[in-house]
Amino acid sequence: MDDTTLLPAAALPASEREGVYRAILTRRDTRGEFLPDPIPDAVLSRILIAAHHAPSVGFMQPWSFVIVRNEATRKKVHDAFTRAHAEAAMMFPEDKRDFYRSLKLEGILEAPVNICVTCDRDRAGPVVIGRTHIRTMDLYSSVCAVQNLWLAARAEGLGIGWVSIFENTAVQAALDIPKGIVPVAYLCLGKVRGYHARPELEAAGWRPRLPLADLIHFDRWGETGGDEGLVAQLREDQQAVGEGRFIRDRLAG
């Protein structure tokens, strides 16, 4: 490739860099904060453009987006959630079932827009660059589109909730998704009253945020002593995130 076609590799200006990290650190799985306000087409278009520019294996772009506004259709999906939610409660230890049932885990009917992100596993034919040995790379690509969509929505001041408590076949039937097209994510999208300071499950005591430094291995699994300087930096940075000063202390200027 001629180097003249390459974009500059410099870091983003400080304000833009801060915006990227702010979107990442304040993105939340939204459930009970949706407002009924409609989403302007221009905003929804920008969010979908962001999703469509996600990385994909072999540039196959396996995703499609089913935009769901119809109340009757959303009711079908909500019914599927309700059935699965009741089943899921019984899978947890008895002392956690009531806690689980008390959690708000979807906003299907409250959000003005639902989006189902799918994966067409045959879109680029049987042999795809990069998928020859890891067949699930196309599914991972569609998940990358979800993440792009989610971060763009946060940048636009919107909330997204990912609903995964239902049978995929029920979603396929409700949305008339053809056999062979895989529903990857069912998302609730809309304006919100605000964002929680911490993820709701963390704040509720369901699970804590894991220490990042404890998840790092060097050169091989189980080798955790390879770079004490980096480990110390990770601990300091994670503490700064928890105290709400990461962007100010680490990115300003």
Summarize the SSE layout with pairings.
Elements: H1 14-26, H2 41-52, E1 63-68, H3 71-89, H4 94-102, E2 113-120, H5 137-155, E3 158-163, H6 168-175, E4 181-191, H7 200-203, H8 228-242, H9 246-251
Antiparallel strand pairs: 1-2, 2-4, 3-4
List the main descriptive attributes of the protein structure presented here.
single chain; NADH Oxidase; 2 domains; 12% strand; alpha+beta; globular; 253 residues; 9 helices; four-stranded antiparallel β-sheet
CATH class of the largest domain, please?
Alpha Beta
What is the typical, i.e. mean, pLDDT?
A: 95
The end-to-end span amounts to: 34 Å
Could you tell me the strand content as a percent range? 5-15%
CATH fold assignment of the largest domain: NADH Oxidase
How many alpha or pi helices?
9
List low-pLDDT spans.
none
Count structural domains.
Answer: 2
Gross morphology is: globular
Helix/sheet category:
alpha+beta
Question: Could you give the count of β-strands?
Answer: 4
CATH H-level superfamily title of the largest domain: NADH Oxidase
* Alpha carbon gyration radius: 20 Å
Protein model, in words:
With about 250 residues, this protein is an alpha+beta fold. It folds into two domains: about 15-205, NADH Oxidase (3-Layer(aba) Sandwich); about 210-253, no CATH class. The chain has nine helices and four strands, in the order H-H-E-H-H-E-H-E-H-E-H-H-H. It has a four-stranded antiparallel β-sheet with strand order 1-2-4-3, with helices on both faces. The chain is globular and about 55 Å long. The chain starts with 13 loop residues before the first helix and ends with a helix. The relative contact order is 0.18.
